[in-house]
From TrEMBL:
It comes from Flavobacterium procerum. InterPro entries: DUF1842. It comes from the Bacteria. Pfam families: DUF1842 (PF08896). This is DUF1842 domain-containing protein. Residues 7-118 form the DUF1842 domain.
């Protein structure tokens, strides 16, 4: 059983133009198991604009693979769903999709993008909050 989690670690960071007024920022906290090519965790999307898209929490899962070359040594894909409310005056909510793609180095710095209900953010920085921790 212990081999299943061999090399597991916690990765935290952001996707987006941090410091740009009104820019959506995706903050991630992920458990990475390279031996299984798996990633699971939470992404929180925040935006300094009031409304249904100003704070979204998404449980995600995905895959991680080594590239074997170049500046970006790993690629990551994430998917998840969250409850999206209709903007006023409509009433109700539905399950919306979230996905992200990252091209990163071993310290979880690089570039990527993410998409969620009616938003597509591309070619933004990915920045590690700190050095990945062993789980």
């Amino acid at each position: 059983m212990s081999e299943l989690l061999a090399g597991a670690y916690l990765a935290k960071g952001t996707i987006g133009n941090v410091g740009t007024p009104g820019a959506p920022i995706a903050t991630f906290s992920l458990v990475v198991v390279p031996s299984q090519h798996s990633v699971t965790g939470t992404v929180v999307i925040t935006q300094a604009v009031h409304g249904p898209d100003s704070h979204i929490v998404v449980q995600v899962k995905g895959r991680i693979y080594s590239t074997g070359f170049g500046k970006f040594t790993q690629v990551v894909s994430l998917q998840g769903q969250y409850v999206q409310s209709f903007p006023p005056p409509a009433i109700g909510s539905f399950l919306a999709d979230f996905n992200a793609h990252l091209a990163i180095d071993n310290a979880w710095n690089g570039e990527g993008g993410f998409a969620y209900y009616q938003h597509q953010i591309e070619k933004v920085p990915v920045a590690s909050a700190k050095k990945p921790e062993l789980v």
